[in-house]
Amino acid sequence: MTGHDTLVVFGAGGHAKVVIDAAMRLGVRQIHLVDDDESRWGMSLLGYPVLGGRDALLRLPERPQAIVAIGNNRIRCAVATWLESQGFPLATVVHPSVQLGHDVLVGRGTLLVAAAVVNSGSVIGANVIVNTSATVDHDCVIGDGVHLAPGVHLCGEVRVEARSLLGVGAVVTPCVRIGRDCVIGAGAAVLDDIPDEMRVGGVPARLLAAD
Question: Does the residue 105 lie in any domain?
């Protein structure tokens, strides 16, 4: 996001600190922080108070850009859909230390965290998290709502379908397809295609359960 000094951050857990930090480094001066969890109302993150829930958000006099700071992929996508339905355009937040190659496309509502690398020709969908020091090599396609946890490494031409979670340090070899709504365990080495809605883990990755 460039040229915007105000941002709505929906979600006030630990992940919100990462979002707010990146936004501040991009020049955002005003954060409207909200959460559905009433126990978080009135608390403060990096100096910004949690204003309340959705009602507090709808009382804002304007509709600034917004991003969802929630790790759960399904919930993040659902909240993003609600925000757009209420007139809040989704922001794309890219930490200044991120390395983006030529011809990379990054969707709305997506967060690229510090030291992430996305190489040439890759496409990152909407409401994706590419977390700390994760790398996406050339010509990968990352579906909407995916979360690449810290230290994930995707080789070239990998495809990850919607809402899948790749755990910390997982590695995916070239040209592999990971289906939608999969969970790839921390440290897994994925050598072969994974069907939809599967949980895998280990080196090499093996089926743990259907999701």
Answer: yes
Q: Do the domain assignments include residue 211?
A: no
For the chain, how big is the Rg over CA atoms in Å?
Answer: 17
pLDDT tens sequence across 108-139: 999 999 999 999 999 999 999 999 999 999 99
Instruction: Mark which of 68, 90, 112 sits at the end of a domain.
Output: 90
Count of domains observed in the chain: 2
Angstrom distance (rounded) from CA 159 to CA 51: 38
Section 160-181 average pLDDT = 98
Tokens at residue 192, please? Answer: 């072969």
Q: Is residue 38 part of a domain?
A: yes
Reported residue count of the chain is 211
